[in-house]
Design goal:
185 residues; 62% helix; three-stranded mixed beta sheet
Length: 185
Amino acid sequence: MNPIHNAFPIVASAIGKKANIEIKWGKQACTDGNWIELPYFDPQSERLRRLALGKLLHECGHVRFTDFSVPETQPLHEQLFNIFEDGRIERCMMGEYGGAQKLLMEMAHEVFLGDATPTKDEIINEDPTQKLLNFVLYQQRAQLPGQHELQPIAGEYLQEVENTWVMFGAAMAGSNDFFTEDGQS
């Protein structure tokens, strides 16, 4: 086995030590500002090593730039806050670290494109609130440098959000008032 394949955990721990942050290994990438959890991955896979590096960089951005004293409120508010905070901290990291844009772009492509790209049917069948959150997520991400490829997915979500709210408005207004006799609006 190539020794470089085992270097990532050492590098991650060194970064954590320098920032006085504990690095944990688990199921997901997350932080509370005092520790960073990174998912286990196959160190033989270059793709997964680069993805893990992007996730480490992202979580370091939260440690460096997120105000963890902001109180948690309702779940929807938390999700929206996190979507916008992710974009903000990634912009900050890109501004401070020259190689950050490429690593964060690669991570976003891995997480949001390819096999992870939702199909039209998956988008249509999502819960209305999830459609709205995903529209905001993809629209926010599409504005980040190197992530403009996410704009068409944001557009798909926008169309479905609009369709959902038109149907909701029709139900609230009463379908007899909303449609003419031939079913046209």
